Queue: 4 jobs
Job 1
Amino acid sequence: MGKIHWSKTAQRNLEEIADYIAHDSPFYAINFIERVLQDIEKLGNFPKIGRIVPEFKKENIREIIFHNYRIVYKTEKDCIFIISLCHGSIDIVRKAKTEN
C-alpha cells in the first residue's frame, strides 16, 4: 500500500472548497471532505485508478474526478503525492504555473 502525502497547496485547496460549501451547509462541507478523503484513500491500493492528466501527458501525473472537482496526484515508487484539488472549469496548466 502506497503512503499518501499532501502538498500544502492541496491541503489549502480542500480547506477553501470546504469553507465555500460550509457557507451554505456545514453538514455538506463535512460530508464533502469525508468523501474526498475516502476516494483519495483508495489511491494507496490502486494508484493507477485515475487517468493520466491530459494537459500534462505524463504517466505518473494522474487525476480522479470527484463530482465537479479534479484531484491531481503524482505516483512515485512507494507513495502518492496529492498535488491539487480544483474545480473542473479551472485551467489546470495556468493554475500550476501560478502555484509554483
Note: Residues 1-96 form a domain with the YaeB-like fold fold (CATH 3.30.2310.20).
Job 2
Amino acid sequence: GLKRVVKKEHADGSVTQSQFDAVGRLRTQTDAAGRTTEYSPDVVTGLITRITTPDGRASAFYYNHHSQLTSATGPDGLEIRREYDELGRLIQETAPDGDITRYRYDNPHSDLPCATEDATGSRKTMTWSRYGQLLSFTDCSGYVTRYDHDRFGQMTAVHREEGLSQYRAYDSRGQLIAVKDTQGHETRYEYNIAGDLTAVIAPDGSRNGTQYDAWGKAVRTTQGGLTRSMEYDAAGRVIRLTSENGSHT
C-alpha cells in the first residue's frame, strides 16, 4: 500500500522523519542521527504490539478485547500488568518489581478514581469536578493540594498546604502566557501568529527564544544570552549555523 513520510524540523535545525502505512499507522521513526525505531501494529485493531529500538531491543504490548493494555514487557524482560473491572476501569496495576497499586471509584458513572492504595496500604485521594478536572489531591501524609480552573477547563492556580500557590494566565487562544508564584516571581511566554513559542522570559528578565520564518523553520535561537542563526537550502536542510561570536558550522 501507499506509504506516507512526514519530516519534522526542530528549533535546532535537526530533522526527524516518521513513516506511516496506507491506513495511517506509524511504522518507523528516524531521529536526526539516522537511527530508526520500528513500530508493529496489530493488523485488526491498529494497536502497537511491538516497538523495536535502533539497537534491536524490543518491547511487547498485550491488550484485552476492549483494546485496553493488560501487560507490557520491556527489552529487559520486566513486565507491568493491569486489571480492569466490568465497566472497563483500571482497578489494579502491578509494577515490574511486583508492587501493586489499586484504584478505587466512588461513582459508578465515572472513570476517574477517588483513591489509590499501594502495597504498603498508603492511600492517596482525589476529587474531581463534573467536567473531569482535578480539584484536589491528598497525598499519603494528608497534605492537600487544590486546583482552580477557568471556564475553558484550563488550570489557573495550584494551592499547596504550606501556603505556596502558583497562578497561570492564558491568552484568548488558550496559550499559557504567564506563571506567577506567591512571592510574585513571574515567568512569561510569547508566541508568534502561528502559535509557536518564541520566547520565555524568566523572572530576572533574561530571555530565551526562537524566531521562525514564514515556513515555520527556526532561523534564530537565543539560549542563556547566546544567539545562533540557521540558514537552509531549498530542500529545507540546515546549511549554515552562525553563532553569536561569528563562528560558522
Note: Residues 195-249 form one domain.
Job 3
Amino acid sequence: MAKRLDLKNALQTIKDFYYRNQRIPSLSETAGIFNYSSRNTALYLLNKLVETGYMTRGTKGRLLTTPKFHDKTKLLGSISAGFPAPEEEELRQSLSLDEFLIRKPSATYMLEVSGDSMIGAGILPKDFVLVEKGRTPAPGDIVIAQVDGEWTMKYYRMENGKAYLQAANAKYPDIYAKEELVIAGVVISCVRNYA
C-alpha cells in the first residue's frame, strides 16, 4: 500500500531547501530529499504544491514560489522609540515581508550595498536594497544608475532640466554624466540584518 502524502510536512521540507538554496529543488533532488524511488512520485508532490497554490509554473515550466509559499511574520504590536511605554504583547496580524515590501515581484530585485556614499540616507555597507526596475524616478528618489559605464546608487536629482546623481555623504561629489545616465531601477526598501 502506498504511503499517504503528508503535504504540510513535505511543504516545510521544500521550504527549508528553498531558503537554504534560494530555489525550488529539481525533480531528482526532490526524489532524493524524500527518499522516493521514482521521479514520478516527486513530480506528483510538486504538482500537488502547484494545485494548492504554493507554487506556480513559469515560462518553460519552471517552478516558482507564490506569496502563499512564504511564511508570514507575526506583527505583535508597536514599540515606542522615544520614551518607554507600557504595552502588552498582542498578536495583531501576520504578514509576509515579501508582500509588505514588494509590490511588483516580477520587477523587483535585491542588491547588497558596498561603500558608504548613502549613509546619510540610512543605507549602510552590507545592507540589502530592494530595487524596482522599470519605474520612472522622481527627483529625490534613490536610484540604481549606470553613469558613463559605471554602476552606482545615489539620489536622483534634477537641475535646470538636467539629471544628476547626489550621494548622501558630503565626502562624495555630485555626479553629472559626461556621456550617458541610465536609470536601472528605483530603491523601494532597505533591509538590514542585525544578527
Note: Strands lie at 55-57, 63-65, 73-75, 93-95, 108-112, 128-132, 142-147, 150-159, 162-166, 181-191.
Job 4
Amino acid sequence: MLVATVLALCAAVLHASWNLLVKQSEDRHLALWGQFTIAGVACGIGLIIWSAIDGPPDVAWQWAVVSGAMHVPYIVLLSRAYNRGDFSMSYPIVRGAGALAGALGGILILNDSPSAVSMIGVILVISGVLILARAGSWHVISAALAVSATIGIYTVVDAHGARESQPIGYSMALLVCAAFFTTAWTLGTKRGLMIASLKRNARTMSGAALASTIAYTLVLIAVRRAPVGYVAALRESSVVIAAFAGWKMLDEGDHRRRIASAIIVFVGLVVLVAGG
C-alpha cells in the first residue's frame, strides 16, 4: 500500500506540473498541441512495435477516435481557461467540475449507481467550486467549466473504450488519435506558428508529454497494488498542489481562499471516489 500511495502522489505532482508548464507557456494552445503530438508519435511507434512483436492489441478504435476528436475542444478550451484566469483558480475548477461531469455522465449513460456517500462528495466538490467562483469573474469561471464539460464527455467515452479494449493499448491508441485531430485543427488555426513553436519549445513540450505519460503509467502501476478508488482519490490531491503552485511559483493572489477551496474540492473528490 505504501508503494501505491507514493506512486499516486507522484502522479498528482506530475499532472499539476505539466499543467503548470502549459500555463507558463507563451502560446498555451501550441503548448498543448505539441505535448499531445509528441506523446501521440511516441505511442504510435510503440503500437507498431507492439503489433510486430505480439500482434495488434485489442483496441475499440471507434471510441479512441471519438475521444481523440474530443481533445480538440479540450485543448482549445483549456488554453482559453489558462489565458483568462489564474492557475490556482482554473485548475481546481477544471479538475473538480470535470470529475463531477464524468460522474454525471456515468449515471446518465453508463447506468452507474452513486451511493449516499458519493452524493456527499458531490456536495463538497460543488461547495469548493462555488467558493472559488465567488472570487472570480464569470469570464474566467465559464472557461474553466467549459473544459470540465469536455473532460466529462471524454471520460465517459474512455470508460466505454477501456471496457472493450486492452487498457494500455487503448490509451496508446487514444493518444495517437488525439495527436491526429489536434494537429489537423492546429494546422487550420496556427499553421504558420507550429514549426517555430515546436523548435523553440521542444524541451518544454517533451517534458510535459513525458510528465503526462509517466503520471498515467504510475496510476496504472498503482492500481495493481491498491484499490482503484484509493489511487484515484490520492491522485486528486493535484488540485491542492496546483493552488500552492499558483501562490508560490506564479505569485497569484487570494491564496488563502484558493487553497482552502482546493482542499474542500480534494476532500469532496476523495469522498466521491470512496463512495463509488
Note: The chain has one domain: 2-274.
